């Protein structure tokens, strides 16, 4: 009886141990998840200002970055029409960045005014910031 119990417990332990050693991917292979999100193009980014502007189908979105800032012209996917901290996918760099969406669905004038006020203290010159227009491609 002792042999049967020992052998069966060793068999069960080895099955559990070997079954747990399989390779699993918990992250999706590919960009289908991100490409199904809202699309936008970065139209303003500055090295001295932590804010950047994304042009979307519905207007302009202002994002405060947490370290990494994309370049102007980069294509971005994510929840661009909701306030708060969001993960954004930079399609151009194939990277994920984190940022706080402060305002969305802005007109060009509203976004320009907001960037002028938010980035005023970060600038090394007194130049006015200019947001580019017409970089958004229809998808």
Automatic annotation (TrEMBL):
Signal peptide annotation: 1-19
Domain of life: Bacteria
UniProt key word Signal: yes
Keywords attached to this entry: Signal
Name the UniProt record assigns to this protein: Lipoprotein
């Amino acid at each position: 009886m002792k042999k049967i119990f020992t052998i069966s417990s060793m068999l069960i332990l080895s099955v559990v141990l070997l079954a747990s050693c399989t390779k699993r991917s918990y992250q999706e292979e590919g960009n289908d998840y991100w490409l199904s999100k809202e699309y936008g193009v970065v139209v303003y980014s500055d090295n001295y200002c932590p804010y950047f502007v994304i042009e979307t189908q519905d207007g302009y979105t202002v994002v405060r970055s947490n370290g990494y800032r994309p370049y102007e012209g980069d294509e971005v996917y994510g929840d661009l029409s909701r306030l708060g901290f969001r993960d954004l996918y930079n399609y151009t760099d194939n990277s994920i960045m984190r940022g706080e969406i402060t305002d969305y669905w802005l007109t060009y004038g509203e976004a320009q005014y907001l960037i002028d006020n938010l980035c005023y203290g970060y600038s090394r010159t007194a130049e006015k910031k200019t947001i580019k227009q017409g970089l958004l491609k229809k998808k």
